[in-house]
Amino acid sequence: MMERPRYRKATDVVQLGRDPRKYLGAVNTPIFRATTILFPTVADLEDAALGRYTGLSYGLHGLPTVVDFQSAMAALEGGFAALAVPSGLTATTLPFLALAKPGDHVLVTDVVYGPTRRFCENHLKRLGVDVSYYDPHAGATIERDFRSNTRIVFAESPGSLTFDMQDVPAIAAVAHARGAWLILDNTWATPLGFRAFDHGVDVAVHAATKYIGGHSDLLLGAIVANESTHAPLHRIWTDMGIAASTDDCFLGLRGMRTLATRLAQHQASALKIASWLRARSEVAEVLYPALPGARGHELWKRDFSAASGLFGVVLRPVARERIAAMLNGMRLFGMGWSWGGFESLIIPTYPERTRSATTWHAEGPCLRLHIGLEDADDLIVDLDEGFLRLGA
Ligand SMILES: *Cc1c(COP(=O)(O)O)cnc(C)c1O
Q1: Of the residues 82, 94, 217, 264, which has the maximum number of CB atoms within 10 A of its CB?
Q2: 176 and 230 share a domain?
Q3: pLDDT exceeding 90 applies to what percent of the chain?
Q4: By the 8 A CB rule, do 282 and 132 touch?
Q5: How remote is the CA of residue 280 from the centroid of ligand 1, in Å?
């Protein structure tokens, strides 16, 4: 086979994970629905039972659409291999089960996605794993939070709700010097915005539900591992029977084809709207690391090559009913969880409720905006009318 040239990301998202010659010339890898796979001979069946069979042996793992999604994710992120899982939350939690054992200690960023934290509290502790949370701004000083039994550091950059940027390479250096693995939730940036393995990450996890799916109709996760972490991850994924469906991986691949194009538009519109918001008297601060002058911008500029369209806003002090009046009347922005689809979203957030190692002091209440693919000027009109209701 000819060596594959190294392409840029916009080409990779179009090219990776498909081979029309294998499927009657079809551009996309088709959906393969199968459970039972028939063996040609008893010898093959016995080889399969002993784990020596190289072909597909059962529909739980190894269907072509799933394998193509996994190989595309691994190549896009630059990891050794990827596993497809049914949700982003499965992707963030499974690595803990694969890599931690009773008596270990794990360090988790204080601004981690809420349900990841809930898993640590409800299950890791019950299984005898110590959990503590660290300041996302710690950088190399995270060493102070290390214990002799610290085995995992879990990062998310920028973090949920307040978009704190982490110095990932500095944290990776400390983790590795102390014999710990660094797991990164890279959902916000996608593999296009942050190359996790170039910055010392051992396991990069993604909610493909967000930008990779891109259309608010898919739940899917991906765990991309380096060579040393892939084996234990593959073991538990196999032993627990965790599988993403062929249909969902088809949609994951379909979303991936337009990821670079969509992300560029999300970023351009988000920057335009974030700058407009920053100039408003109702706004105390915009929490968007891609915005020049915003908190974390220097780290973002150093390490990232793209941004998504999700950011936070700190309002000047205002009564909660005024926020309800603003948000209830939005015409284009919808209110709902998740993000990364083509449509714009806005919700109130409560960052002070989920932290424990740090405290959140802001001048006023917070909002989270997802800037979709509508015309940015139309979105600005919607926000402008919203501010009239806020001030009324
Ligand atoms: C949404 C999200 C997840 C979970 O993804 P689901 O597919 O909804 O389970 C994980 N991490 C981050 C940062 C997220 O925003």
Answers
A1: 82
A2: yes
A3: 97
A4: no
A5: 31
Domain end, chosen from 208, 229, 256, is at 256
How high does pLDDT run on average in the chain? 97
For residue 203, what pLDDT is reported?
Answer: 98
| Whether residue 204 has its Cβ less than 6 Å from ligand 1 | no
The tally of domains found in the chain comes to 2
Spacing, Cα 24 to ligand 1 middle (Å): 36
* C-beta separation of 211 from 222 below 8 A: no
Ligand 1 atom nearest residue 210's Cα: 1
Contact call for residues 182 and 174 (beta carbons, < 8 A): no
176: CA distance to ligand 1 center in Å?
Answer: 26
With a 6 A CB cut-off, is 167 part of the ligand 1 pocket? no
CATH of the domain at 386: 3.90.1150.10
Same domain, yes or no, for 139 and 77?
yes
Q: Tell me if 109 CB under 6 Å of ligand 1.
A: no
In which domain, by residue range, is 321 found? 259-390
215 burial type by CB count under 10 A (0-12 exposed, 13-18 middle, 19+ buried): middle
2 assigned to some structural domain? no
Backbone phi, psi, residue 109, to 5°: -60, 140
Ligand 1: centre distance to CA 89 (Å): 6
- The amino acid present at 72, given as its one-letter code, is A
Measured from the Cα of 207, ligand 1's closest atom is: 5
pLDDT in tens, 224-237: 999 999 999 999 99
pLDDT digits (tens, 9 = 90+) for 20-41: 999 999 999 999 999 999 999 9
Do 192 and 275 lie in one domain? The reply is no
